[in-house]
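Hi R.,

As promised, here are both runs. First protein below:
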Amino acid sequence: MTALRDLLGQQWPAIEDAARTFVGGGGETIRPDAPDGTDSAHGRAIAALLAHSRLSSSGSRISTRDVLGMGGMGVVHEGTQVSLDRSVAVKSVRPDKKTPGSTLKLLQEAWIAGRLEHPNIVPVYDIGADAQGEPLIVQQRVEGWSWDTLCREADTVHTRFGASDLLDFNVRVLMQVCNAVHFAHSRGIVHLDIKPSNVMIGAFGEVLILDWGLAMSLLDDGTGRLPLARDNAEIIGTPSYMAPEMMAQDGDRLDERTDVYLLGSTLYELCCGQPPHTGPGMIATLYKIATQAPCPPPESPEELGAICVRAMAMDPQERYVSAEALRLALQDFLEHRGSIRLAEQACAQAALLDGALAQGSSEDVIRGLFSAARFGFEQALHAWPHNEVARSRLRSLQITRCTHALKNGNAAHAAEFLAEIDDPPAALQEEIAQALEQRAGDAVRLADLQQFADNMDLRIGQRTRVFIVGLMGLLWTAAPIARHVGGDVSAEQAVIMMIGFPAGFLVLLGGLLIWARDSMTRTVINRRTGWTAVALLSFQIVQTAVGWSMHLQHLQIMTLNFVLWSLCAVLYTIAVERRMLPMAAGFVLCMALTARWPELVWILTAVANAGLVINALVVWFPRPLFPPKPPPSAAPT
């Protein structure tokens, strides 16, 4: 790039002088002067051609009618090829421009196009002569639209060709142009004036390159017919699209990569609607070409902009090696474009997610936006694994979601999101590890709390507890009543009964506890209730035996038993179930009454035990015996 720029800098005075002679704007082609038609090798070639009558006479073969178009040197008429009765375009030199040189340029264009039989190049059918013997070029008549206007008209493109995406349509047209240019290069021909106005789009979508009047050959075929690029010593091309070496006035610098530059200039216009080289005048435009490296076309897709910049590199060695390489790059872009669109849609969802996070939206909203954005990026990468934008944004999205989960105290989800991130940030990894460690400690404490709550849950084993306490309480109530009704017995019989009853109750209670061991061992209250009853009956048996051994009367022993029962009731109420306070109060009261009226000990025992049953049923019964009344409904207004 530096060598060519330095060369153009050195030649700039000559370039500027030449530019002052050009007429027109940057969009008009600068054509080299035609060589003398008699003294040059080209002149001798045409003279030989005419001398041997190798031009077809058009009088009987071609009929011409209206003018279809007119250029700087030529005019095109509508015509008919009589032998085939088909419409053709007949190109000749404008009457006011006829010189041997202009005639030779017309023939050279025909000779070049005649060598390029390709679907995207307008074919030349014949070279004829008019009545005065002046050459005529007979070529295919192209009916359609010039691409320089069609490339901007999305509605027309959609109506005529059913293409809803104008950029996609234009890129596909350019790919066909690349194909034709690559074919010309394979024949040693460079076009040197590629631009949208030199491309026609036919009524059926056919793409045809026009105007090979500036084309030159890179190879000398020995016929002298073709203009050789190496012989060029002038500024040539259309300034709005021109490659820097086209100003160097050195034909050896013109080659296939010059056309690659022109294809890149065309791509630039397709992207942003204007050619790459513009300025207030011809000199300013040429100076821009000579000194400034191209920038990506504004508002173009990133990949397409990169293709454009490479194709238009100032140093030809930095451009695509061929028009075919450029075509393949455009093909890759079209294949990647679906991925790019998916990534753009996913970026929009990611932006909505950022807004939702900033506004503190609900977790459902955040989860939905995250899922939509992640799916879009993943589909974009599936379509094009090298979509770095999608890959980078997906990683950022995952980090955002991970950070949000961590911020909300959900370390487990944060760890799951972290596992999906390639090369996650070390700081985030450490933060999540600390959160997981803390969560593990919290889980242990929570498990301990839950175990404690379960131990203290009165609902667990409630039915079984009520059943056992109710059954035992009824027996404890019935037994003293039966003893009171049974009348007087001997002292030994009384003691035997006072030991036998609790022993029997102890055996029965043990059986019930074994039967209901699953529920009666799950909570603290069940275990303490069971063990309190077992301890009470055991101590009662021991206390009765000790009292008997001390020769106490059975009524005295029963009074001591009441003290034992009352003490156990009070301790149970304090340590296990405070709602059993009425039961404890009943035992204490009956104990006091027994001390005053010992003869009522059995009745008072039955009353205290009955109070135990009633208190237990009220407190522990699965359904409230007296459900609360519903609140009164509001009075109608």
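And here is the second one, sequence first, then its structure tokens:
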Amino acid sequence: MTKNNVTVIIDGEKLNVPAGTSIMHAAEEIGIKVPRLCYHPQLSLEGACRVCIVEVKGIKNFVASCATPVQEGMEVTTTSPSIRQARRDIVELILDNHPKDCQTCERDGNCELQRLAYAMGVRERYFEGVKKHYDLDLSGAAVIRDPNKCILCQRCIRVCEEVQGVSAIGQAYRGFDTVVMPGFNLSFKDSVCVGCGQCINVCPTAAFLEKSSSDKVWEAIENPEIIVIAQFAPSVRAAIGEGFGLPPGHNMQGQTITALRKIGVDIVFDTQFSADLTIMEEASEFIERFTKGGKLPMITSCSSAWMKYVEHFHPAILKHVSTCKSPMSMMSAMTKSFYAQKQAIDPSKIFNLAVMCCTAKKFEAQRPEQTDENGNPYTDAVVTTREFVWMLKSMGIDFINLKPSQPDPILGLSSGAGAIFGTTGGVMEAALRTAYEFITGETLLDIEFNAIRGMKGIKEATINIQGKEIKVAVGHGLKNAKILMEQVEAGTSPYHFIEIMGCPGGCVGGGGQPYAGANAIPLDEEIIKLRAKALYTIDEKKVIRKSHRNPEIQHIYKEFLGKPLSEVSHKYLHTHYKPRLPKGI
């Protein structure tokens, strides 16, 4: 036994583990997975569900294995007739207050409570009684809250507070009346919820869901008067295969394009093209600020959840934020202006569909700032990766075996820089590749900026361009953004350029990505890393790896936009933001 280890006996087997290890994790060392429901490895311990109970010799009552550390000489029993019965009773009591709508529930077949009930041997409901009943909160643009399916595990509360730093939701009331809701009993629409959807990712049931737009999409597809134009985010191609049983990290770009055509979409473009377009504007905006004494540090603006967060919590630094629209909104604006003119199409006949990894994009699409001069939205509907998976399954499309195809021309070609937009650090890396060549007029040979890659919460680097040092920082997850923004507010930020992504890992960890499978953990870092690796591989294999080298990008500036930051580009590719407070406060 080492100095910091203890010896314990679990189910008759002696093992040596580090002091402070939970019984749950110690048991896993000998191949025993204690059932759990409220536990999540990236969140604080709650011990709320009690499903993970075990017996410890010398202690009268069962203990929660997730929250009980091992001690020297401890003897643990993880399974016995009485333990199994107690666990089953706990799950049966949870089910007693749960709706009986599994077959029509969005999480049917991918519900942790459903899987647990099966594993516990729950075949009947023995504790039928009074059920709670709440109205659904359908007010928000991005997230739906269904308190009737809430099991009070508090994962949503913990991820909102501990990972995102938003604390938009909490528990109210006590006992049977306990419910999870936004503060001050506000609706989602009127609360500080940023729409990131991480509550959906970690919820074990269907208490939180994205607000579906699929019916609106079907209606547009079936209308012969409407031209449906689709785009899909870089991170969608790196994750969509998981919805069809593939392991994480497969690039399904070609199959996604084919699938969009199979469901009836008329034109398919690639958001990676407009990611290149974003870099043209954003790099130019940074250079102008850096060389002419503009507001620094400049902060990226392509993450929808981040932009709503900064409006709520850091409105004083909005002048630091880039005025560039996100790639999604740039693409939508280009299809209803440049593409419509070029193809002689009435923009009112275009229906722009965006397949995104992000629930917050639904809110972005409804922003009044993202409309044309007549008040019509540029983006007509946003569906998440999950929604798109459901749509394909409903049509019986054999996604995995589809023959890959290419996006349509004019707004479809992209560089490797456009692909890495989907992972934390990718926007910054893409911007630096272009900014360096714009400033120096020389070819950048070493284009991979490894210092700003990876899952570290805040990454930084110093880039030397013609003798001038440019200090950059990258943050992902809004709690990390808060650290960087407090420096900006205090006037102590050492950086010139900051990238913020609202979700852990960036878009690859977005709130609209496929649910974790039966043996996976929601928001698992390894899954996020594999998705990011798929995007970096796309970049590595591209002949063109810098946004400004994309010939379709060069063409759109020559024919329509003129140059970055021109009057035309400001009209279609830039926007503004405003301070935002929850109503009633």
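A quick note on the second one: The mean pLDDT is 95. Let me know what you think.

Best,
J.
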